[in-house]
Amino acid sequence: MSYQIEGAIVNDQGIKYAIVVVNHDVVQHINKNEEALNAYRHIFPDMPIILLGKDWQGKSAYYGPKEIVNYLAEIDPHRIPWRRYVIAD
Predict the structure, then answer these.
(1) How far apart are CA 40 and CA 19, in angstroms?
(2) Looking at residue 25, what is its pLDDT?
(3) CATH node for 8-82
(4) Confidence band (pLDDT; 50, 70, 90) for 18?
(5) b/e string for 30-61 if b means 16 or more Cβ within 10 A?
(6) Per residue in 50-81, pLDDT tens?
(7) Beta-carbon count within 10 A of 64 CB
(8) Where are the domains of the chain?
(9) Burial level of 71, CB count in 10 A (0-12/13-18/19+)?
């Protein structure tokens, strides 16, 4: 069995990190976002993980290390190299 996630691995300004698209409510609730981060650590080992949720208006909200989140908040999300990852259970 497998499932798919939308995300990106970014290597920018000497920092390599992963971004994973999640439901907006995951970004808004501390217990949900920590649970999601833990679930993705085996997929993106040894790199910071950023969660991206979009609200009903399409506005992006990020959760993760503050310096990366602040940087991502300033750039156009279309610049991120998004792809679909198929994860085998």
Answers:
(1) 10
(2) 87
(3) 3.40.1350
(4) very high
(5) eebbeebbeebeeebeeebbbbbbeeeeeeeb
(6) 999 988 887 888 999 999 999 999 988 888 99
(7) 20
(8) 8-82
(9) middle
